[in-house]
Task: structure prediction
Amino acid sequence: MKILMVCLGNICRSPIAEGILKDKVAKASLTWIVDSAGTLDFHNGEQPHHLSIKVCLQNGIDISTQKSRPFTKKDFLDYDLIFAMANDVLYDMKKIGKENFSEEKAILFLEPLHPGKSYDVPDPWGRNEKDFVEVYELIDKACDAIINQYANVSKSN
Ligand code: 4NP
Result:
């Protein structure tokens, strides 16, 4: 199964989600491929935000080699599940995806953790380390919920 994590800049939230889910996938011996992208192209080619790198490293996860890249309509063809970190991101994904947009593939990232609530992962961009720590903890719980929800259905892919 191929999973894409998407936020706006692909420097704060979705790189953390990519790093944490990759770590959990390896520990659970799943064969999922996990990547991330952003609906804005402002940070194309950049490393994750230094505070995203720092809070991940504090938890034994190195995301420093990730590079921001823009989300494209082709991602709807290349990935099985595409998680939007927030409702504004999901809106952008619809606009970018055009005829490739798929209701089944595009899911709010917090949906498995908080079904039916339409919650956003708060954007820590421009905020302080404490906010990045809170975002890390929320993303960590949400990645557990994703593994619990999708691990059994993905055994064959
Ligand atoms: P992210 O945070 O979507 O979690 O990576 C942001 C990073 C940069 C911008 C917005 C959000 N920006 O407007 O440049």
Observations:
- The CA atoms of residues 85 and 121 lie 6 Å apart.
- The chain has a mean pLDDT of 96.
